[in-house]
Design brief:
Elements lengths: L13 H18 L9 H12 L15 H10 L1 H14 L7 E7 L4 E6 L4 H6 L10 H4 L3 H8 L3 E4 L11 E9 L5 E10 L5 H39 L4 E6 L4 E4 L1 H7 L2 H5 L23 E7 L4 E12 L2 E11 L17 H12 L5 E5 L2 E5 L4 E7 L2 E6 L2 E5 L4 H8 L4 E5 L2 E4 L3 E6 L5 E5 L6 E4 L1 H11 L2
Antiparallel strand pairs: 1-2, 1-5, 3-4, 4-5, 6-7, 6-10, 8-9, 9-10, 11-12, 11-15, 13-14, 13-17, 14-15, 16-17, 18-19, 19-20
Helix pairs in contact: 3-4, 4-8
């Protein structure tokens, strides 16, 4: 049975401990079992996984997983490689004559960058610990990079704790790098050759990995703000379009009010869900950001409509950081009504009628005495429940709406630029002239009518408003 735990501190008499672990390794390779004084649990578990995955314990070189051209491409395109390069390059200058090597690996354990003490180059090349080589546990058995990828936490593996013969003289400390979304995107490794393990080495690897992670988060935040500004700009340029921003990983990062309503995107934006998770938009975008403008189609099954989607790349600092989707309905409905059997009108006439109806101007119906009048939504400042009725506030006064209720009215007005401010009020955002903070959690919307009327936004809806208007 394996002893110890994953946090291991070697004593000054590390040679005695090293001999004990070497004997435990030989016994495990011979019998597949552990003696009472076996390795710590972290190592024992990795030995078992290595054996089950068929790793050859006599291996002396790690496999090459990437060609030189593929390594160069990865270093030019992967965010973690671009961000880590200046950080690791600066630190590598301090590692000369230190007896240690520095590696950056991707999320598959493939070496992208290598630096450090030049005296270790021959030993590193002998093990193929060079750009393109793969240190995953399945490829190289027990090692610090492979375990860090396996458990998602820093790890230090020393000498005979390794599974394969080729790296029994190495001591390695590795720490995972996580991006702004918390995804493990790489590993920083510091390795010494014929060196006793030292806890400071692991702490240093963790510090470097944390520096790279912080740089990734800063870069992601900067790009997120660029995408937000692009959504706001395109929404002003195309006020009738639903506008969605997708990052390089295909995740939805921002959307305007119309897109939120038509495709129910509030959760998708908040949780950075992939575009593929949204019904109707799943097949619009290919893999990665669009590099050139193109068009496609999207289907909104909830509202039985087809939409034309224009995809625009978003460049920033010499690279494409995402894609803007401009979504507008095609004329007509997805499925037009079939003509009745005894009708003289052909099917084409039914399609034409559906298209004409879909393009008809949108009007609200209001009651004035016994009459019914049509009110363009753009003339309405807000709609509010008072008593048993819903009242439309316009420049000509208040009119009683003829509608099936606030929820039905919201469904019709949100695509026209209205916002549900609270339980009783819908506000036309195009008619808002100022936003007055009441506290850290609520605001007042000041309308552009003669009385500068105010509508208080509820706490929950204020969060949505801030996300919508980016303030």
């Amino acid at each position: 049975m394996a002893g110890g735990d994953e946090f291991h501190v070697w004593s000054q008499d590390y040679r005695r401990q090293e001999r004990a672990i070497a004997l435990a390794r030989e016994a495990y390779l011979a019998t597949g079992g552990f003696a009472k004084a076996g390795p710590r649990t972290l190592v024992a578990d990795s030995w078992v996984r290595s054996r089950l995955q068929g790793v050859d314990p006599a291996r002396r070189q790690i496999p090459m997983a990437l060609s030189p051209d593929e390594v160069a491409q990865a270093n030019e395109t992967l965010e973690v490689a671009l961000v880590a390069r200046p950080i690791l390059l600066k630190f590598s200058e301090l590692m000369q004559q230190s007896g240690h090597a520095l590696l950056l690996c991707d999320a598959a354990g493939r070496v992208l960058q290598a630096a450090g003490d030049v005296s270790l180059h021959r030993a590193a090349e002998a093990a193929r610990s060079v750009p393109g080589g793969q240190w995953s546990e399945a490829a190289a058995g027990t090692n610090a990079v492979g375990i860090a990828l396996q458990i998602g936490h820093p790890a230090q593996i020393s000498l005979s704790e390794h599974y394969c013969e080729g790296w029994l003289q190495w001591t390695c400390a590795a720490a995972p790098v996580r991006d702004a979304a918390g995804e493990l995107v790489g590993v920083v490794d510091i390795s010494g050759y014929r060196e006793p393990p030292h806890p400071h080495t692991l702490a240093l690897a963790e510090s470097l990995a944390a520096d790279v992670g912080r740089a990734l988060r800063r870069r992601a935040e900067q790009r997120f703000r660029v995408l937000q500004r692009e959504v706001a700009s395109r929404s002003l340029e195309f006020p009738s379009d639903a506008v969605v921003a997708v990052d390089r990983q295909g995740r939805i990062r921002a959307a305007n009010a119309l897109a939120n309503w038509v495709f129910n995107l509030e959760r998708a934006v908040g949780e950075q869900l992939p575009l593929a998770a949204v019904p109707g938009l799943a097949r619009v975008l290919g893999t990665g950001p669009e590099l050139s403008e193109r068009e496609g189609l999207a289907e909104d099954s909830r509202h039985d409509r087809l939409y034309r989607v224009t995809m625009l790349p978003v460049p920033h600092e010499g690279t494409v950081i995402g894609t803007i989707l401009l979504i507008r309905p095609l004329a007509g409905r997805l499925r037009t009504p079939a003509p009745v059997a005894d009708s003289a009108a052909p099917a084409s006439a039914a399609s034409a009628f559906a298209a004409e109806a879909a393009e008809a101007p949108f009007r609200l119906v209001a009651r004035v005495g016994e009459r019914r009048v049509l009110v363009p939504p753009e003339k309405v400042y807000c709609a509010q429940i008072r008593g048993e009725a819903i009242w439309l506030r316009t420049a000509d006064g208040e009119l009683e709406a003829v509608t099936g209720g606030m929820k039905e009215l919201e469904g019709r007005l949100v695509p026209a630029g209205f916002f549900r401010a609270n339980r009783t009020s819908l506000v036309n955002l195009r008619r808002v002239k100022e936003i007055h903070p009441l506290s850290r959690r609520t605001v007042d919307l000041v309308l552009g009518d003669a009385a500068s009327s105010r509508v208080t936004v509820s706490r929950r809806r204020t969060t949505h408003l801030r996300r919508l208007l980016h303030f």
